[in-house]
Design goal:
By secondary structure, this protein is of the alpha/beta class. It has a single domain, classed as Metallo-beta-lactamase, Chain A (4-Layer Sandwich), CATH 3.60.15. It is 20% helix and 22% strand. It is built from seven helices and 14 strands. The two termini are 29 Å apart. The relative contact order is 0.17. Bound molecules: ligand L3IBWBLD. The site of ligand L3IBWBLD has 13 residues, from loops.
């Protein structure tokens, strides 16, 4: 089990901290009384920030592949350690500028899986900020500085992400979930990659994909998280930005079906192959390091 850095325990905060997150999390529009009562349990507004701990969170978008990249940092730690989840090569400069402007120290460039539709930014990031470590799952059969397995905890300062194995879109897909515990922010946040998209899910027709496996992954590893857990996928093609476990359990158009119906839906998606798949896969199997020569610059490291 990987455990990086030290966990320093602290104790529950005063009630005023329950709203400390609200500026970062969208307010749920009121739809109707019964639905809003149901959704109150998965509201985006109630949040708990442990005393002396603050998670900086940004959702970033790459429009050609409709990919979300996520920036997380422990900004109460003296070093302001930060990580990027699913960076894209085309938007690395933007992301590193943001890291620099916010005074963060980027330590990890993480991938939820081997992407088929775009080139990961983790290789370019490593050439720009040599101390950054690339991370991907061992099950992806890729090369990276750190190969994680289910249950591993990835620490950035006093905060951490837990890795959950969610294969099915690809063999090595993982979901990174913010830590459980009184000293970690709530609600939890799940970075689901392509395993679970908002009201949908990743396709299962290549890279060791399996609809049966994806169904089990989502139901056992994601739908079992607290209902108010925020869902942040790697892609969105419809304009959504965030959902919750509670919302997807009720309204996901594919995963609310029984397994047999789900498998039939997935078999009949008939999606065209991603345009960049032949180019992207070999590069992404090395976390983007292939054919890159180290060109360190004073970028995102304070
Ligand atoms: N048209 C895009 C690829 C679109 C696509 O296939 N998206 C994947 C995730 S990236 S491999 C997917 O799983 N989609 C699920 C869905 O229901 O759309 C391209 O050519 O790159």
């Amino acid at each position: 089990m990987i455990r990086i850095n030290l966990l320093r325990l602290s104790f529950p905060s005063s009630p005023s901290n329950f709203f400390a997150f609200s500026s970062q999390i969208p307010v749920l529009p009121l739809i109707n009384r019964s639905r809003s009562r149901l959704m109150a349990k998965c509201a985006y507004t109630t949040a708990f920030e442990p005393p002396g701990k603050k998670l900086l969170f940004r959702q970033l978008f790459e429009k050609e592949s409709s990919t979300y990249t996520y920036l997380l940092a422990d900004v109460t730690h003296p070093d302001k350690p930060a990580l990027l989840i699913d960076p894209v090569d085309k938007t690395v400069e933007r992301d590193l500028s943001l890291v620099r402007e916010l005074g963060l120290k980027l330590i990890y460039a993480m991938n939820t899986h081997v992407h088929a539709d775009h080139v990961t930014g983790s290789g370019i990031i490593k050439t720009q900020v040599p101390d950054v470590k690339s991370i991907i799952s061992k099950a992806s059969n890729s090369k990276a500085d750190i190969l994680i397995e289910a249950g591993d905890k990835i620490y950035f300062g006093d905060l951490f992400l837990e890795a959950r194995a969610t294969p099915g879109h690809t063999l090595g897909c993982v979901t990174y979930v913010t830590g459980d515990g009184l000293d970690q922010p709530r609600p939890r946040m799940a970075f689901t990659g392509d395993a679970l998209l908002i009201r949908g899910c990743g396709r299962t027709d290549f890279q060791g994909g399996s609809s049966s496996q994806l169904y089990k992954s989502v139901h056992s590893q994601i739908f079992t998280l607290p209902k108010d857990t925020l869902i942040y996928p790697a892609h969105d093609y419809k304009g959504f930005t965030v959902s919750t476990v509670g919302e997807e359990v009720l309204y996901n158009s594919r995963l609310t079906k029984d397994e047999e119906t789900f498998e039939s839906i997935m078999e009949n998606l008939n999606l065209p192959y991603p345009k960049m798949i032949d180019m992207a896969l070999p590069v992404n199997l090395t976390c983007g390091l292939q054919e890159l020569t180290a060109k360190p610059v004073e970028a995102a490291s304070n």
